[in-house]
């Protein structure tokens, strides 16, 4: 093999001759196209969601928010995450579990259910009642229609059609109106064919029309199956007929519908779902006119025959087939491949469209290709003897430095730029390249190979005839040379990842050590956006002149024009922001190690102002259509506008094309429902939003849900039990609350759901919980006991008073006796004293008398 790398001077000398000699002829030119590879587009609802296996014959909604479905294993209620099956075990009044038709009368919430053996069942108020019994002559119920007023029910059997009047009195009755039409019904459709006549229901009346001759023999019929939309009819090799309202006409899109396909339903995204004769049997004609047939590569069993379709209130699309139930995830996010007519597909790492309609494509393997507007592929890379991807010498004109022999590895091409002349500039690990439209690229090597560029080029900022390059520093490139360079001596001591020129003319640089801004001949750190930010990945200036800064793992920063800096990070629900994109719907899109992240700008603003503790983010990863969940950042092609209004993001698995304006944003709140109550581990029936616990029952589990179909697993809840604790509890994504050792009394359980978009249910679900007291705790018993205590207390007081009175009387008697005794003693002593006084006076008188006699 020739030593290409030794011929550099020769190629420089005679590039034109070499191009003529080596240019492929038009007859052998390689051709290709940019395509979206098959990727899972459907979620199968299966046993992981408690969903029964087998055929799905009907899908509908009624006022309770749930999806209701009929299967041959029971009636199913689905909340977007979990299923509950109603069968003869969970609903003993049901006579069978094999259900084949379904209709929800939304004004009343009534659910009309048809069975395989011909019965008609009404579901109302949580109960089921059989109205039509088994009819072996008519066979299975295949379709049901109900008038808007609810006074007429039209039952389509496999063998006929009957109309019934609904009579509501003490009990609902059905009365047959007229005769039954005989004919052939179609599973999943409210239609009947008999003797070349088609009958269907519109406006609460049976309509009929004579079929065109081409449809008389073995026509195929399909419809949505949920009582909405239209009927389609087709026989082999004939027109596609559309029946809507009272009219029947040829569908104007039949030229785009394959001959072996029959329309099933139209969707809100402008698509038409198709039912094919052979596998894969499910397909779709999208709004761009492309027909896709879905097989296992898209997440669908190709053998499943589509029976019914339903578009829910949020715009989600559901398909019931003969062997499963699927949710369509949409195609707003997809991978991108370069498909060549030889050599298979190449994973696209990044690309850019030139003014002439050509696409310059950097592939994941390091190759560089020009896909011209006419589909011709021009290769600028090849493989050397060791299998490494290298630049082809015949396609390269080395303008400065040496070509060298370094390979172009994965993600070697980091940036594309388009100047005002339409030239495509390419930043790579090897240096700077430019395509001028002549089939040759010019290369300006890095300084390591004698070139003028400081290092590999991460980003390109085009300004007139000049380029600003982010490298191991910042270079200004003009006129084929670097005219100004900023490195360590000029204040940049680390790798530069992105550049931004603001409205004031200041140049900003995102580096691995914060944000720098040009100040004359130097770059200086920006206050508040220094090394503490770590690796900065993205810069954006908004309409108010505020600078938004995305980091690798430290969240999002914003600098106000007056210099104030605000930050939100992991605590607020945001960690990494490699790239930033603001769309027209007020949404901020960011790439990260986990995938593509979406947040509402108004919530981010509130978090910056300190008015919100946490923002609601929505993650789109590999399951949503990205080639890989891990995104890349730190170079110009990490994310860029592409494909019209789309946004292309770089992942470890190649480019993901995100048509962000087509991503469904759910603005309706979830419906909060309390589904089950368990007391001491056993299920407890409750009615009128009330449950009662006995005196020996104090542990209760309340299970609830937030019914939504988009992001159901991300719904969060807040609840409280008033009377027990009035503060709200963040239940996160848990769908049950448990309370233990409740004291006797009345409580009110209150719960509401919040969608992943941050929209809360407008009303809470309420449940009154009454815990009955034990017999001795009842109020009547307490009253009797209280009265007895009062009586006993009174008796005790009375007895005590009597005792005190008796003691008082005894004391009085004792005192009286003592007084009397004392009085008697006093009288006695007084008498003695008086006698003694009299006697003394007598003695004194006698003595005086004797003395006087003696004296005389």
CATH architecture field of the domain at 47-187:
7 Propeller
At the first level of CATH, the class of the domain at 47-187 is Mainly Beta
The count of β-strands is 70
CATH superfamily (homologous) name of the domain at 47-187: YVTN repeat-like/Quinoprotein amine dehydrogenase
Which percent bin holds the helix content? 10-25%
Strand order of the largest sheet: 1-31-32-33-34-35
Structure description:
Among the domains are: about 45-185, 7 Propeller (Methylamine Dehydrogenase, Chain H); about 210-325, no CATH class; about 670-775, Immunoglobulin-like (Sandwich), CATH 2.60.40.10. A hairpin with a 5-residue loop joins strand 11 and strand 12 (about 150-155). The longest helix is centred in the last third of the chain and has 77 residues, at about 780-855. It contains 5 helices and 70 strands. The strands form 17 sheets. A 6-stranded antiparallel sheet has the order 1-31-32-33-34-35, with no helix packed on it. Strands 38-42-41-40-39 form a 5-stranded mixed sheet, with no helix packed on it. With about 850 residues, it is mainly beta. It is flat. The termini are far apart. Helices cover about 10% and strands about 45% of the residues.
């Amino acid at each position: 093999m020739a030593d290409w790398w030794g011929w550099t001077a020769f190629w420089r000398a005679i590039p034109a001759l070499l191009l003529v000699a080596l240019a492929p002829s038009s007859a052998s030119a390689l051709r290709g196209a940019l395509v979206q590879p098959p990727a899972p587009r459907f979620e199968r609802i299966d046993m992981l969601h408690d969903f029964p296996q087998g055929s799905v014959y009907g899908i509908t909604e009624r006022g309770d928010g749930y999806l209701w479905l009929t299967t041959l294993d029971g009636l199913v209620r689905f909340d977007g995450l979990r299923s509950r099956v109603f069968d003869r075990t969970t609903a003993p009044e049901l006579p069978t579990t094999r259900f084949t038709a379904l209709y929800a009368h939304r004004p009343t919430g009534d659910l009309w259910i048809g069975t395989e053996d011909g019965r008609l069942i009404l579901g109302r108020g949580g109960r089921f009642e059989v109205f039509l019994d088994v009819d072996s002559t008519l066979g299975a119920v295949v379709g049901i229609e109900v008038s808007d007023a609810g006074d007429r029910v039209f039952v389509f059997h496999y063998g006929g059609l009957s109309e019934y009047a609904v009579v509501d009195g003490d009990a609902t009755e059905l009365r047959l109106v007229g005769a039954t039409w005989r004919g052939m019904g179609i599973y999943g459709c409210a239609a009947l064919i008999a003797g070349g006549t088609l009958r269907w229901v519109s406006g609460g009346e049976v309509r009929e029309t004579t079929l065109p001759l081409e449809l008389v023999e073995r026509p195929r019929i399909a419809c949505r199956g949920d009582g909405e939309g239209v009927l389609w009819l087709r026989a082999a090799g004939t027109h596609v007929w559309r029946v809507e309202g009272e009219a029947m006409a040829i569908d104007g899109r039949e030229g785009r519908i394959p001959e072996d396909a029959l329309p099933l339903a139209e969707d809100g995204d402008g698509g038409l779902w198709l039912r094919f004769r052979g596998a894969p049997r499910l397909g779709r004609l999208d709004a761009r006119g492309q027909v896709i047939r879905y097989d296992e590569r898209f997440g669908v069993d190709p053998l499943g025959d589509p029976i019914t379709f339903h578009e829910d209130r949020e715009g989600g699309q559901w398909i019931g087939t003969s062997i499963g139930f699927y949710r369509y995830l949409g195609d707003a996010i997809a991978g991108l491949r370069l498909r060549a007519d030889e050599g298979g597909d190449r994973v696209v790492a990044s690309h850019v469209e030139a003014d002439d309609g050509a696409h310059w494509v950097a592939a994941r393997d390091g190759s560089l290709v020009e896909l011209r507007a006419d589909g011709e592929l021009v290769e600028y890379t090849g493989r050397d003897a060791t299998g490494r991807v290298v630049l082809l010498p015949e396609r390269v004109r080395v303008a400065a430095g040496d070509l060298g022999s370094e390979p172009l590895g994965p993600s070697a091409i980091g940036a594309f730029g388009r100047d005002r002349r339409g030239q495509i500039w390419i930043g790579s690990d090897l240096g700077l390249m430019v395509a001028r439209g002549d089939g040759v690229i010019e290369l300006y090597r890095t300084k390591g190979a004698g070139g003028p560029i400081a290092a590999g080029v991460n980003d390109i900022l085009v300004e007139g005839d000049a380029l600003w390059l982010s490298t191991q520093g910042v270079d200004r490139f003009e006129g084929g040379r670097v005219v100004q360079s900023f490195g360590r001596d000029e204040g940049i001591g680390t790798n530069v990842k992105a550049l931004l020129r603001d409205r004031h003319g200041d140049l900003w640089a995102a580096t691995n050590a914060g944000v720098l801004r040009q100040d004359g001949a130097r770059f200086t750190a920006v206050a508040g956006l220094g090394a503490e930010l770590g690796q900065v990945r993205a810069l954006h200036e908004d309409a108010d002149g505020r600078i938004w800064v995305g980091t690798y793992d430290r969240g999002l920063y914003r600098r106000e024009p007056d210099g104030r800096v605000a930050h939100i990070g992991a605590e607020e629900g945001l960690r990494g922001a490699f790239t930033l994109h603001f769309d027209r719907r007020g949404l901020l899109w960011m790439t990260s190690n986990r995938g593509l992240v979406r947040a509402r700008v108004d919530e981010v603003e509130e978090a910056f102002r300190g008015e919100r503790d946490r923002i609601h983010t929505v993650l789109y990863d590999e399951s949503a259509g990205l080639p890989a969940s891990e995104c890349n950042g730190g170079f110009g092609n990490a994310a860029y506008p592409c494909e019209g209004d789309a946004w292309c993001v770089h992942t470890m698995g190649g480019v993901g094309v995100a048509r962000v304006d087509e991503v469904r944003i759910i603005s309706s709140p979830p419906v909060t429902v309390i589904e089950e109550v368990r007391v001491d581990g056993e299920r407890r029936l409750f009615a009128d939003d009330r449950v009662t616990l006995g005196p020996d029952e104090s542990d209760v589990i309340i299970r609830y849900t937030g019914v939504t179909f988009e992001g159901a697993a991300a719904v969060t809840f807040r609840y409280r039990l008033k009377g027990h604790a009035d503060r709200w509890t963040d239940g996160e994504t848990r769908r049950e609350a448990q309370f233990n050792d409740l004291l006797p009394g009345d409580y009110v359980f209150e719960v509401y759901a919040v969608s992943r978009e941050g929209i809360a249910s407008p009303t809470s679900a309420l449940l009154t919980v009454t815990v009955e007291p034990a017999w001795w705790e009842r109020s009547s018993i307490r009253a009797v006991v209280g009265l007895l205590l009062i009586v006993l207390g009174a008796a005790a007081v009375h007895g005590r008073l009597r005792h005190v009175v008796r003691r008082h009387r005894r004391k009085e008697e004792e005192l009286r006796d003592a007084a009397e005794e004392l009085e008697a003693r006093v009288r006695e002593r007084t008498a003695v004293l008086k006698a003694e006084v009299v006697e003394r006076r007598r003695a004194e008188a006698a003595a005086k008398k004797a003395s006087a006699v003696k004296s005389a």
